[in-house]
Amino acid sequence: MPKPIARRKTKKAVAKRFKVSAKGKILYRGSGRRHLASSKNRKRMRRIGSVKIVDDSDRKKILESLPFS
């Protein structure tokens, strides 16, 4: 019998936190909005919630965890 092809599984924790755009950029939302919000001002809360682009130094690790993206 032929040996089955080894396949990589998607890391579900990474898949929930990051999204790959059509042009290949990796997007994520900032952390820190869930609780203890009363001590953070409005401007800070807006900036936390906005979509950000992952730095190039972390890009390779994230793409390895998302083999089907």
TrEMBL record:
Gene name, Swiss-Prot/TrEMBL: rpmI
Pfam family membership, one: Ribosomal_L35p
InterPro entries: Ribosomal_bL35 (IPR001706), Ribosomal_bL35-like (IPR021137), Ribosomal_bL35_CS (IPR018265), Ribosomal_bL35_sf (IPR037229)
Annotated PANTHER family: 54S RIBOSOMAL PROTEIN BL35M (PTHR33343), LARGE RIBOSOMAL SUBUNIT PROTEIN BL35M (PTHR33343:SF1)
UniProt keyword Calcium present: no
Family of this protein: Belongs to the bacterial ribosomal protein bL35 family.
Assigned GO CC terms: ribosome
Entry keyword Ribonucleoprotein: yes
Designated name of the protein: Large ribosomal subunit protein bL35
Gene3D superfamilies assigned: 4.10.410.60
SUPFAM superfamilies given in the database record: L35p-like
UniProt keywords, alphabetically: Ribonucleoprotein, Ribosomal protein
